[in-house]
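User: Please fill in residues for this 240-position structure.
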């Protein structure tokens, strides 16, 4: 039998009927609102099924997904990722985003780009992109605009340091209730870009600060807020 939304924030397994589309519309309090099923969920008729094990999550107004900590990233449309240029052609680039196949990034997929005026990326450069096409039967395609032609923070990443972490930690970093980045920002001016493919890019004034911030992020995955506050305080005392 289909479960109602009492399954929210509970563990589900592949094949579980999480709820119905009608349940989701009632929960969003707007039957006309378009529902968005994220990673781990798919619709079959009126039923919503889980195809990954994890925790059933919801973000207002009508976004639902399964929060899981898998090793390999699976592309999802409109997610933002950090890629590494692995090859370049006349009109496009091949980009490593941690998936089984490289993604394609058009040289015109940047704000204001034309055939005469476009970024000149080199192999090994980092780029922050949005997945414009993500289909299991097609090669992923990337875009450095938000769909309306604006970059909104997307594009090449210069300098700094990129490191890999778990997919669960990247989602945790983007959670507004996770206090680590806010605490670090009180003591260290820095830039941080989080890709949902398990990559984090950090840039700060000094190499010591970059290393300290990177280590703090890596160590915070299984800490609660109180432990994070203690860690940041000890980190600041050690550097200052």
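Assistant: Residues filled in for all 240 positions:
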């Amino acid at each position: 039998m289909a479960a109602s939304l009492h399954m929210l924030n509970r563990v589900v397994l592949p094949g579980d009927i999480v709820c119905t589309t009608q349940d989701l519309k009632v929960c969003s309090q707007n039957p006309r609102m378009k529902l968005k099923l994220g990673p781990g969920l798919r619709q079959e008729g009126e039923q919503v099924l889980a195809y990954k094990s994890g925790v059933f999550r919801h973000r207002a107004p009508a976004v639902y997904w399964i929060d899981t900590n898998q090793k390999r990233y699976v592309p999802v449309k409109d997610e933002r990722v950090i890629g590494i240029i692995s090859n370049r052609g006349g009109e496009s680039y091949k980009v490593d985003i941690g998936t089984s196949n490289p993604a394609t990034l058009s040289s015109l997929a940047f704000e204001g780009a034309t055939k005469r005026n476009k970024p000149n990326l080199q192999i090994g450069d980092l780029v922050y992109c949005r997945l414009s096409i993500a289909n299991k039967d097609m090669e992923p395609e990337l875009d450095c605009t938000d769909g309306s032609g604006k970059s909104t923070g997307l594009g090449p990443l210069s300098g700094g340091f990129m490191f890999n972490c778990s997919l669960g930690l990247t989602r945790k970093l983007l959670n507004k209730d996770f206090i680590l980045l806010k605490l670090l920002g009180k003591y260290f001016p820095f830039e941080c870009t989080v890709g949902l493919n398990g990559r984090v890019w950090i840039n700060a004034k000094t190499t010591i600060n970059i290393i300290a911030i990177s280590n703090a992020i890596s160590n915070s995955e299984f800490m609660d807020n109180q432990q994070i506050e203690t860690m940041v305080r000890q980190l600041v005392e050690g550097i200052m």
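For context: The chain has a mean pLDDT of 88.
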